[in-house]
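Support case: user asked for a sample of complex input and structure output to validate their parser. Sending the pair below.
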Amino acid sequence: MTTEVESVWLGKRVLVTGGAGFIGSHVVDRLLGESAAVTVLDDFSTGFREFLPPRAGLNVVEGSLLHPASVSAAMRGIDFVFHLAANADVKNNLKEPLKCIEQNLIATQNVLEAMRAWGVRDIAFSSTGSVYGEATIVPTPEHASFPVQTSIYAASKVAAEGLLTSYAVGFGFRAWIFRFVSILGPRYTHGHVFDFWRKLRHDPTQLEVLGNGKQKKSYLHVQDCVSAMFTAVAQARSPINIFNLGHHDWLEVDESIAIITRTMGVSPRLAYAGGERGWAGDAPRVLLDTTRLRALGWAPRRTIEQGVVETLGFLGDSPFVSRRLG
Amino acid sequence: MTTEVESVWLGKRVLVTGGAGFIGSHVVDRLLGESAAVTVLDDFSTGFREFLPPRAGLNVVEGSLLHPASVSAAMRGIDFVFHLAANADVKNNLKEPLKCIEQNLIATQNVLEAMRAWGVRDIAFSSTGSVYGEATIVPTPEHASFPVQTSIYAASKVAAEGLLTSYAVGFGFRAWIFRFVSILGPRYTHGHVFDFWRKLRHDPTQLEVLGNGKQKKSYLHVQDCVSAMFTAVAQARSPINIFNLGHHDWLEVDESIAIITRTMGVSPRLAYAGGERGWAGDAPRVLLDTTRLRALGWAPRRTIEQGVVETLGFLGDSPFVSRRLG
């Protein structure tokens, strides 16, 4: 396996957009470990410098994906792009509709155009399981029914997917599209585990919960996520490669709260906002069918509970997160 | 039927984007006939003033959907939006990728944001059967498998669909999304009938044909198209209403050429470019399942051949088209 992976990345020049972010910085670590030369392009709006200690083979560029010239400059000489920069704040997508479109779609268009200009052809992209909307089939396979988008976040991701595939067809690009469940683990600084952790630090006696606590979703540890992406890129070499990415297990919000409160040693009174959905457009049940990815030999090696606990461990050990995010 | 339709449109103030275009101008005619007050917003880049003779109840605004202020000004006091403005030049989508995104997606975002600002909730939108990519099921139903986008044109349309549905979920909009086959009939000034007509006017002795002549697609007469949209808006009142729109019949390119050459009285030598597809991303077979729309009582009343012949009749009678488009 190691030999095979090295054959893909050894000496490759890889651009990681959003490389200072949660998943991006783990991808950077893995790429450097596989002897790739890595350029990170990140605007540091949500990413952290602490996630990117200086190392040989790592070049960090601060710049916005909304500036075509910045993207083009970073693209020069690149062999492969991990396009992971995104506005991932699905819960608040209705507050700033244009932000999702700009950061998830226009940014992607700028990346694709810079690739076209420089003759870069290979791109891996972080989409989302949210593109399935409220799926009628659970676990949801990649070939599920044409979905109705229920959030501007997911709409912007499905739009970006469309751009990738149409560039693959029209310009001979090769695209790997990963539809993620929520990812957990060290360096995760948003999502429900972070939100609960932050609320409980401020007031361990009570916890407000969006929805009724019965939403049930799959999550995946970031290391398993990165392994999945690297397995797919090494082994799936079609012009368009679309993979669901998630755990076969899932976790109810109430179960997650039990893990979080136990780990933090607190016993809050729970106040439920009520309703089947955490927010407008939230899917009450998320479980993806990952048969396609498992056929390549990948499987998650950590439980969801490990993901929750390691996220909390990271947050407790990282005062720079609290300093910025409160 | 007439009574029912009148109850929907009588006294309504309707904005038609792209109202100077092919389908838009027919929608304007129908709305004025149903006693609506109509505002057209069009940049006249592809639309024609000749399609919009001045009439009582018609207000024509020249402006770009890419200028939020223009869209917002036109949206004031509106009850219902037909958003039909688009870059429909699918064949050339790879020459100007950004044009599709701007004119089909950013324009749509601007329309939705102007609606939100003014409290306008109802929008009908012209999407495309191209969103199904190369469909595995033919005739293709609305709930077909999650497709892979094969053209930037279709990617921009599926992106716009996603925006409409996510605004419906998030902001209480009501959306009618129509996935059209190619529409034919008077005022059609692009597409294969127009292209063939123009080539044959310049040289009736030979005709270059994209692909191998065996592409087989459904088409629909513009009057049947408009009737379908008005039937759906009058009768389907869910927050999100998605309808395929096409003829149960389809036509091979070679059959279409036979109709065109017979009608024009020419006998060109045919030169095929070859290949199953007319262009990168073209779907060789397009036939949509319109069961959903037929359940509302709609059915096409004209043959595809009538659509071809009437398109040619219009082109022959409209010297202003040749003056602009050659």
